Amino acid sequence: MTFRNRALSPAELDRFGEELDELRKRTVATLGQRDADYIRSIVAWVRWTEVAGRGLLYLGAFSLLFAPVLLWPACVLGALLLGLSKILENMELGHNVIHGQYDWMRDPHLDGKTYEWDIVGTADNWRHTHNFRHHTYTNVRGLDDDIGYGLLRIFPEQRWRAYYLMQPLIAVVFALLFEWGVAIQNLKLGRWIHGKVSHRQMWRMFKPVGRKMARQIVKDYVVFPALAGPFFLPVLLGNIVANILRNLWTYTIIFCGHFTAEAETFPKECVRNESRGHWYLRQLRGSSNISGGWLIDVLSGNLSHQIEHHFYPDVPANRYAAMAVEVREICKRYGQHYNTGSLPRQFGQVVWRIVRHAFPSRPRRTAPLVAAGEAA
Fold it and tell me: Membrane spanning segments where (predicted)?
């Protein structure tokens, strides 16, 4: 049963925002060595799981010379470990560092403005499409490009078109190639296809993306397999599997954080003269958490706490679990639903949305952010 959020008066919205601001202030004041040690331990895990994974892929490849029975066990375990490294680098390291969560450490290797991550998309494009547009205009139709990523109709408020009938299949392909979708998101290819962007402009925008794509392709699909010589195929396949595992996992976590049954979208008008409390409330109603404990937290980059991440994107994500206790209590006091559930439950709702809204559907009625008759 859907929770009925209580509409808040402007005064309540202000107090709601002030309490959440105060929580951020108290948390930031306690940042220190423990947080630095944590992110450096993640760096070490990324490095050594990659070394182990690639090492096992080579062991499996060269085992064809002396012990063919080792081929599949070594390659499967190697691909899994390499996939784990890529997941940790993408989610808990790259995503959070690029948000500037560790800029206070003054470590040039963990600088949010210069960090480059291990996917085909550039960190610079991500800083614009994600850090700025998505986190500023979360789930605002026409401003947040993450709503369906220009491919999918996730919410009934999105205009239906006949090609959405294919979106269950498109969603699967998108999941498998998720890093590539992220890479081209900022290019807005639709504008180029419809002649709103010239070929020269598109080429200028594509060049840095193309260079990054080429580097990743050469690294994962040329250099590392070539090191195995005539036994390159198991290494190549291991790299492909590792990247697909990372793509499927990041797709699942991101979609569970934004597109569950109770997540809402908003019209552009809602951001006009938006107060701090109003911004927090919009983030809350457009976000979903995933329960599951420490392992899910780490593997998801703590995006299992998507609500807290949308509230505090520049606070180290390892703090979200503790902050969530108080955030949940604040939401309860103000009559606001704190959307959380297990990974199977949340992803089941995502799949339902993708299938349901492939067909025409009417916009739903949701509670207003501000009490009726009161200005925001």
Answer: 56-82, 162-182, 221-245
